């Protein structure tokens, strides 16, 4: 999809640079061995767009997501949110207030039920207490979690249901950027299509920036832009 000079795109929403990777490198050192996973990666992500990051296993996709979401800091270069270095914003503030992440490992609180998982995340991001439970139920419903399953501890839910609860939790945070690492990995075709539709609405109707790491061709095809990570470089396709 192409942006017009006025900052609108084909879906009618506005676009604006929201996240910038500026000359970002990440090196891991284990013993005497140094491995450069990202080499001076620069890219500007815009609000209102959905991006796919693809690449071979071990190419550094999760590393890139960790840096962009403030979980990890680059060895050199900077990650900028709305023009400010996230180190200056504070990694904790950036993670809690401005971005939400669906991890491959989901990180659900398994002793809590689905609704509690969603509302506890809202508490951290400062969503008004009066509306939390209603919004949690709304999102879980949207993602196909039935009322009786919402009250069960997430440990008792299937892998696909847990993945959808993790997505509901991320959506509940009302942040500017949503990161997701293989968000459809545990889902069948129909459920995956539903998730993709939710992500597209989030980008195109609500003006969020959605960045998805995926091995799925279907997910990549549904995104506005695909970026390939290969030999430490991030290469836009098309
Ligand atoms: N904490 C770490 N310490 C040392 N090396 C690491 C660390 N995290 C990742 N690596 C290495 O960095 C490289 C990139 O890993 P990363 O998990 O980012 O790749 P990926 O593209 O997400 O892989 P996959 O598609 O298999 O999930 C790999 O060689 C990995 O072994």
Notes on the protein architecture:
It is globular, with a radius of gyration of 18 Å. The protein has helices at residues 61-68, 86-89, 91-98, 114-125, 132-142, 147-150, 159-171, 189-204, 217-222, and strands spanning 17-30, 33-46, 50-54, 76-81, 84-85, 99-102, 177-181, 209-213, 225-230, 233-236. The chain has 9 helices and 10 strands. A hairpin with a 2-residue loop joins strand 9 (225-230) and strand 10 (233-236). The chain has a 6-stranded mixed sheet, sandwiched between helices. With 238 residues, the protein is of the alpha/beta class. The model is unreliable at 1-7 (pLDDT under 50). Bound molecules: adenosine-5'-triphosphate. Adenosine-5'-triphosphate binds at residues 28, 30, 37, 55, 57-63.
Strand order of the largest sheet: 6-7-8-3-9-10
Summarize the main sheet: 6 strands, mixed
Low-confidence parts lasting 5 or more residues at pLDDT below 50? 1-7
Rounded to an integer in angstroms, the radius of gyration calculated over CA atoms is 18 Å
Instruction: Provide the residue-averaged pLDDT.
Output: 88
Beta-strand percentage?
25-35%
- How many strands in all? 10
Bin the helical content: 25-40%
Bound molecules: adenosine-5'-triphosphate
Output the number of helix runs. Answer: 9
The assigned structural class equals alpha/beta
What's the end-to-end separation, in Å?
A: 10 Å
The arrangement of helices and strands along the chain is: EEEHEEHHEHHHHEHEHEE
The outline comes out as globular
